[in-house]
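Instructor's aside before we start: the two examples that follow are unrelated to each other. I chose them only because their records fit on one page, so don't look for a connection. First example below.
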Amino acid sequence: MRVRFSISKEHKMNLRTLAEKFKDIYLIEPQGMSSAPGRVNIIGEFTDYNDGFVLPCALEFRTVVLFRAREDTKVNVHSLDYPTEKDSFTVGEKIISGPSQWGNYIRAIVFVLIRAGYSLRGVDLLIDSNVPQGAGLSSSAALEVAVCGAFNQIADLGLTAQRIAVYGQEAENDFMDCQCGIMDQLISAKGDEGKALLIDCQSLETESISIPEDLILVIINSNYPRKLVDSEYNQRRLDCEQAAAKLGVATLRNASMDKLVSIESKLTVNEFKRAMHVISENNRVIKATEALQRNDIDSLRELMSASHQSLKDDFEVTVPETDGLVEICQGVLGDKGAVRMTGGGFGGAIVCLCRSEDVLKVKSAVDDNYEKQFNLKADVYVCKAGEGLKVISL
């Protein structure tokens, strides 16, 4: 078991060293830095693209983008995470997918900004990140928001944090072909340090919710290899859309459990189960927000446990490894903590809310049981809620 603390000093390189790397590559100093965080979702899974409610918080893990504007239209990209790869394209030509998967996220942002009518110039970019990849902590959203923040600064686009988040979502939906909702990008753009963010995904209104100082966020990455996630994710979104259409509502945000039950015979089994999860999950988000404000761990435990069970049985996105981690943590915490799967599922991470005196118990339980049961090592992150997008001149 590897234990990591999500503090800013854990960036692979400090800013000075990163700037030196930029100069080594581009033979010129960077002019600015844009950085955006990953996120953990406390509760509210798969409700965002159904116009529902979510309660995520930003993390102190961040993706950093150093940038310098060019005099031409060429975009050059290097990443310290992929030192043998680079990407290059021009903003004056049709933006299509390139050979680099991570590079396509930069292309995706340029694609949606140009489509929206903005004039862009070329730029040199260097990317560094300590957001864990494949853990369901939104490393892709952090990259999208940080890159969009860089272009916003370079081209003086005047974009709000909310608009940057929307373009990040469009990049994911329309270029990367993953039909995600707005949550990941919005919390990455607007996160408040020490607070969760209650997001109404229909209006995009947000409310900062303080996380009690004695309540610790522990994220445990199962390290289960996620496969075929996008196709499964997109199918579940389609199930939700079809259920909403049969219910006669624009999205499942406007559906009720009574109405769902009354037309069950008109729905496929999957449509009914997906809708059952979304409707009940929206209700859990509101109740969990109130419980967090009261520092009511008993209610949080019940709500997060119900959320996980719904994700397992009705949305069918858990795997034995994440189910096992939840059982291990619930077993050691008892009535002193709250646990559930978090993120897009099919692997990834779970999230625990517990008191500081119980953190070591959680770590030890995972260390003693998880590898024995699943032949995988888990990564444990002891976290604090971080802040959203930051862009500075250098």
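Example two begins here.
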Amino acid sequence: MCGKNDDIKKVASLDYDWDKLDGKTLLISGGTGFIGSAIIDVIKSRNELFGNDIKVISLSRRKKEDEKNVSYLSMDVTKELAVAGDVDYILHLASNTHPAQYAADPVGTIETNVSGCGNLLKLAVKKETKRFLLASSVEIYGQCGDEPVDETYCGYIDCNTARAGYNEAKRVCESLAQSYKSQYGVDSVIVRL
């Protein structure tokens, strides 16, 4: 039976062009969350197993002790971000992601997504990053039928519910990423998890 560490090592060993990240710095918002912490574990493993020098700046509301090649910064992405040094890639993963969180804090959910995305895109322009990755959501499709959803489908969301804040905020974030790409040349990519 494989454990978490075996899975991390397996991913770190995948045949991927890791050299493009060697000597670079990745800024990960939501770095102590589920996906962010897994990515950081893979990068740490890659550095240890293969001698890469990939640095990570983890932004999170939770503070952790810095580790070799990983700096943990306690910051609120809804506020203006001041990050020292080079930032080659930004992965925006910070978000309330559980329906109970949407219900308990719908305003915070919207602000974390929209203001956080905007602040990180501003940082991408300032730092002249190579790429900005936005973790979006299939929730942007809203209510769907039983048929598979095509990425061009815009869906239906009843914006008159507090729960819709998450879906709508993710839509706005996608639009912001595309707008920064068009207006400022930020190489923005979007994954819908």
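The chain is about 40% helix and 15% strand.
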